[in-house]
Amino acid sequence: MTTSRRTTAGNAGNPAPAGPAPASPAPAGPAPAGRAPAGSDRAAAALSGPLAAPGPQPGGLGARLRLDLSYDGSAFHGWSVQPGLRTVQQVLAEALGRVLALPGPAALTVAGRTDAGVHARGQVAHADVPAAAWAEARETAARRLDRLLPPDVRVRAIGPAPDGFDARFSALWRRYSYRVCDDPSAADPLRRHDTLWYPRPVDVALMNQAARACLGEHDFAAFCRRREGATTVRELLRLEWARAAPGLAVATVTADAFCHNMVRALVGGLLTVGDGRRPPAWPAQVLAARVRDPAVTVAPPHALCLEEVAYPPAPDLAARAQLTRCVRPTPT
After folding, report:
1. Measured at the alpha carbon of residue 67, what is the angle toward residues 135 and 119, in degrees to the nearest 5?
2. Local structure of 209: helix, strand or coil
3. Closest CA to 57 of 127, 110, 142
4. If DSSP codes are grouped into helix, strand and coil, which group holds residue 101?
5. Mean pLDDT across the chain
6. Which end of the chain is least crowded, N or C, by CB within 10 Å?
7. What's the alpha-carbon Rg for the chain, to the nearest Å?
8. What is the pLDDT of residues 259-316, one digit of tens each?
9. 115 catalytically annotated
10. Which listed residue (115, 166, 182, 256) is catalytic?
11. Is 228 left (phi over 0), alpha (psi -120 to 50) or beta?
C-alpha cells in the first residue's frame, strides 16, 4: 500500500536505536564515562504522567498513523493543548484534522511532552483515525501538511504504524541534548534561541564526574516536579558532557523516560559543579535525599532539544507498551 511516509536517516519506519545511547545491553567490561553500566537499560519504563488504561489498537475500521516531526519550540507554550495558547499539539492536530477531513482536530499521543520553549528534532506521535479518511488522503497527506503547517513545525514522515505501536508507551528511550556557551567571545547570536549563554566557564570533566553517580535506576524526586499519581522512578542511561567546539559544552541525556523538569534540573545542578560552586559529590547527595532541593536551579528551556526516540522491532512493540505501563517500585 502506498503511503505518504517520508523517511530520514535514523527515523525510517521504526527507528533502531541508532543514537549514541544503546537500546540493548552493552558488552561486558567497564562502562564508558557518562553511561550506565552494562545491562542497566532494561526494557521497563515508568510513566511520565498518571496511569491511563491502554487504548484499543485500531481494528478494521480504524488506522493508527505514526508521525515523525521536528519543531522550533521558541514560539510555543509546549506540546500539550492549553486553552488560548499556541501549542505544538494544537497546531498539528488542527492541520491533520483538515488534511483527513475529520470533524475536528485529530487526537494525538506523543512520545515526549515538551515544555514551553523546548525544541524537538526527533519527536514521534501517533493518531488513531478512520481508515477511510487515511485511504482518501494518503497520497497527498505529507504535501498538504507541508502547506498547512507553520514553518516552525515540520512533519518529516507520516504513515501507518505497525501493530502494537504506541508513540509514548512503546518507546525504549528518549535522548535530549542541552547546549551551553560558557565563553562570551564564542557566543553566536544566530544560535541564541537554542543555546544557553552561561556567565561562568565550566569544567566538563568535573561535570562528568558528578554525572556518573546519577546513572542507573533511581527515584529522581529531587530533580523532578511531582505530578499527582505519577512515579519519579526513572532509569538514566546516559548523562555526559562534551566540548562540541571552543566555548560550547553540550550535554547528552538519555533515559527510558523523564519526569517533569528532570533534564533541566540535572543540567542546572551539574552546571554549579562545573563552575566550581558545588563539589562533584553534591548531585549524588541531592539525588539520595529524594526530596526536591531548592538549591537545584532548573536550567532555562530554550537550550533543550528532544533529539531522538527509539523503539524496539515491530514484533516487540505491544509487549514493550504493556511493560512500560507497569509502575516500578521505588528503589531501596
Report:
1. 155
2. helix
3. 127
4. coil
5. 86
6. C
7. 20
8. 999 999 999 999 999 999 999 999 999 999 998 888 899 999 999 999 999 999 999 9
9. yes
10. 115
11. beta
